[in-house]
């Protein structure tokens, strides 16, 4: 989500938008032109995402943090349901960080419960900044969703093989809602150990990343040494795909968060995939 991990609002340290960055691809005919016309999908920077969120929650558009978080989490749950149906991937672990990206994960967890999944949540650093987070926890607790202690995941046994076995055998899919687009620096405990469990070297279950894979640079993608960071199978970009998602190589890339007013999209020159019917997520056209 366009969420700041250390601020009471959904926005980050907003910069001035310099105009959208565009990725071009050729598609079929459209109402606007001839067959073979080049279509464009906009990729936005962290600063642009922050500005858009600020405008959404400003007086002109009138959204609240809670509304945006609810719609974002619903879109993540819908994408998860499309790729990993409960009949084949019924056990879901939602790993949630302390900011609004974690809040999106908590909302997604609630919807996944109602979609028929066996949902567990790891939420080790609960935010006390706004009442919304406590309400989201209460909603999950009243459903009987289990909360898993981070230590139980990161230290279940004496060796790495035991940790791998615990995660891979206990869950069929993992939602990564640890850090949002404005996180910078190195993760601290217990999130460093949790992210290590999601590293591809650990052979984790399929991962659904919320907006930005945790640990990635929003504008540059995986900048870790040797590009050894997370490799989610599915990415749900919220509002619009971020610049760093151009390096995403997983099988499933969605845009979600169906709340962007056309006027605001036009202001930023956003060109995005079109949603169908009542869908809450839409697949990105192939970039390869």
**Poorly predicted regions:** 1-38
What is the H/E string? EEHHEHEHEHHEHEEEHE
Gross morphology is globular
Number of helices: 8
Cα(first) to Cα(last) distance is 25 Å
Helical content band: 25-40%
Would you give an account of this structure?
The chain has 288 residues and is an alpha/beta fold. It is 30% helix and 16% strand. It is built from eight helices and ten strands. It has helices at residues 46-56, 65-83, 100-114, 131-143, 150-154, 160-170, 191-197, 262-267; strands at residues 21-26, 38-43, 91-96, 118-122, 146-147, 173-177, 207-210, 234-238, 252-256, 281-283. An eight-stranded mixed β-sheet has the order 5-4-3-6-7-8-9-10. Strands 1-2 form a two-stranded antiparallel sheet.
Quick description:
The protein is α/β, with parallel strands linked by helices and 288 residues long. The protein is built from eight helices and ten strands. An eight-stranded mixed beta sheet has the order 5-4-3-6-7-8-9-10.
Helix-strand blueprint:
Elements (H helix, E strand, L loop, with lengths): L20 E6 L11 E6 L2 H11 L8 H19 L7 E6 L3 H15 L3 E5 L8 H13 L2 E2 L2 H5 L5 H11 L2 E5 L13 H7 L9 E4 L23 E5 L13 E5 L5 H6 L13 E3 L5
Parallel strand pairs: 3-4, 3-6, 4-5, 6-7, 7-8, 8-9
Antiparallel strand pairs: 1-2, 9-10
Question: Keyphrases for this structure?
Answer:
8 helices; globular; 288 residues; alpha/beta
């Amino acid at each position: 989500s366009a969420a700041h991990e250390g601020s009471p609002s959904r926005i980050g340290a907003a910069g001035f938008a310099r105009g959208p960055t565009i990725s071009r691809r050729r598609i079929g005919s459209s109402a606007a032109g001839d067959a073979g016309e080049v279509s464009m999908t906009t990729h936005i920077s962290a600063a642009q995402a922050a500005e858009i969120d600020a405008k959404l929650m400003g007086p002109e558009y009138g959204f609240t943090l809670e509304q945006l978080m609810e719609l974002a989490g619903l879109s993540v749950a819908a994408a998860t349901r499309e790729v990993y149906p409960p009949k084949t991937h019924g056990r879901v672990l939602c790993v949630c960080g302390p900011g609004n990206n974690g809040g999106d994960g908590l909302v997604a967890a609630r919807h996944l419960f109602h979609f028929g999944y066996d949902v567990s949540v790891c939420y080790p650093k609960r935010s006390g900044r706004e009442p919304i987070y406590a309400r989201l926890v209460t909603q999950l607790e009243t459903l009987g969703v289990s909360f898993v202690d981070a230590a139980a995941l990161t230290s279940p046994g004496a060796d790495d093989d035991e940790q791998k076995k615990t995660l891979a055998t206990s869950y069929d899919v993992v939602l990564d809602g640890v850090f949002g687009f404005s996180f910078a620096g190195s993760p601290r405990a217990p999130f460093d150990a949790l992210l290590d469990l999601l590293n591809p070297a650990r052979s984790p279950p399929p991962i659904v990343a919320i907006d930005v894979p945790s640990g990635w640079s929003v504008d540059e993608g995986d900048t870790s040494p040797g590009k050894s960071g997370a490799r989610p199978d599915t990415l749900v970009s919220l509002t619009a795909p971020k610049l760093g998602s151009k390096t995403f190589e997983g099988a499933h890339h969605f845009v979600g968060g169906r709340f962007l007013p056309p006027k605001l999209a036009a202001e930023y020159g956003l060109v995005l995939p079109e949603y169908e019917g009542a869908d809450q997520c839409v697949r990105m056209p192939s970039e390869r």
